[in-house]
Amino acid sequence: MKKKALSNIYIALIMLFLYAPMAVMVVMSFNGTSSTSVLSGFSLKWYGELFNDRITLQALSNTLVLAITSSILALIIGTLAAVGINAMRKKWIKNAVLTVTNIPMMNPEIVTGVSMMLLFVFVGHLVTTSDVLGFPTLLIAHVTFNLPYVILSVLPKLKQTDKHLGEAAQDLGCTPVSAFFKVIFPNISSGIITGFIMAFTLSLDDFIISYFVSGPKFQTLPIVIFSMTKKKVKPDMYALSTLIFVTVLVLLILMNVMQARAENKQKIKQTKQV
Known about the structure:
By secondary structure, this protein is an all-alpha fold. Helix content is 80%, strand content 0%.
């Protein structure tokens, strides 16, 4: 009984420290005055000012374009990589490739950001241009750190799929490409969607890597929020952060629901086979 009570208190404290600051941020975003510490009424004023700010809207547009583009590219490359890794016969080669693939995920973001910045600056010197940082470098960086998450989302679904299904489809006259889309793709579609949502979420709220590889002409929303903190903090920054938090929260809930449905379908399929 005591252990259960201590466990509940521990969980409550963890939840408090994790979500209390976010709760304060959400509440203060509806403040009726410009105070950032005293709540005075309820108002949508700061959300209105937020959508009238040209710099914020441009940063929002940049962030969405970058997140969607990098997620699609990471999804295509990551799915193909997962198929290739799953097809490897030698276990030690597969483990070596997976280890290398996981490096961007395990590496500290500041190390990844600085190393990629140095790489892009070096390439800029080779092609004799100083204005090398911008959307292309951000896109390459985001695809790079999104790839491991896509691969780790798709690979388990490939392992659950019968490897002989594709061979059987080809024996019946399908080309390798059509066999993949008609037989393999439906079985791994939940993993692909999960990988896309995860990549989109990571790209949407990334700051550290983006800070090092972005240029002055292309600013993302997290970078704009960081620049706002250097000035006087206003409730419109709370409103902006709240919108990002709610978007990420909705995407994570959607991802968890899809994973739960996929697991239920897999259990039903296994039950029918038994």
